[in-house]
Amino acid sequence: MPRHLAHHLASGRHIPGIFTIDANQSIGQIVEDSFEDEYQDRIEYLPLNQ
0.70 exceeded by the pTM? Predict the structure, then answer.
């Protein structure tokens, strides 16, 4: 996925963001850690405080 995203972004395109999440966290905890457009064009692993 990271290579595909790099090619996608290099082509001038965008994505809203890709998250891989800890299945042990509640959706509320996950949403609490995110902000609008902060993760555009990025891949992040949640929780962020690990």
Answer: no
